[in-house]
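Batch manifest line 283
LIGAND: fe (ii) ion
JOB: complex structure
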Amino acid sequence: MAKAGPDARQLDERIAVLEAAPLRWWAGEAEVVRTYFSNPRTREDDLHWLKLQAARELGTVERLLQALPGDLAGIEAAVSRGSFEASARSVYEEARHYRLLADIMERIAGERPDPRELMALSGCQRERRGHPDLPAMTAEVEATRRLQETYGELAEVALGFSEGAGAAIFYVGNRILELPYTSYSGGAVERAIAEAMGIIFHDEMRHGPVHIPRIAEAIRDDDDLETARRIITEKAMVHLRLRNETFGYPLTEVRMAEIDAGVRVEPLPVDYRNITPVSPYSA
Ligand SMILES: [Fe+2]
Ligand SMILES: [Fe+2]
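JOB STATUS: finished
ARTIFACT:
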């Protein structure tokens, strides 16, 4: 007799375990951004993080674009038309993220970013590469590769949840005008950042967290669940370090160890359960 799949209660429990796994580190990413904006900043500081984040968006466009022809070749067979549409939409949305951040860079610097420089700093291209100036990004690339090599298909599935790291930096970035911040632009740059982050937040909720029920369905047993939990946790830990590096290390090593241990860290009030399939900015 075929083994029965998980029932609704089991699925719900699995979703709860997976959803809880990265929350303290995602809240830590929000703390990185909150702390960064509460400290005095220069144009150069902003150009630094914008360059690194724009680089991640541009590299993601490159990676996703390269997968599209294969998806198209499999449409109506291995690839559903809905899944193909979602992949094509993701390319559009990542291009939008790049445009939004590069617009702010150009406004601050008075010149266009150099896409070749960005691509080298990305860490998100199809051939993911680290960079000698970015040890935390390099460690994140290596950790991700190790998880994929060790856990194969389960890592691919579980890491789908991690894209955008719960959209935490975008959630808090959208709210910087409500937080204490200092400004070299009379608030103009902060308004532009908050607006861009709001759009990226809604898109990223559909790139990572929206996949959680699908991940829960792919899990066969408690061993898989524990492995998926560990994959998500490990990725979240290295990704917090990457974000801290992106924003010029606003959090100390001591504070990051506290976040690892769950000390003084509240999960963000974001509902990761009830996400509509399409961002309001793409509907
Ligand atoms: Fe993005
Ligand atoms: Fe994304």
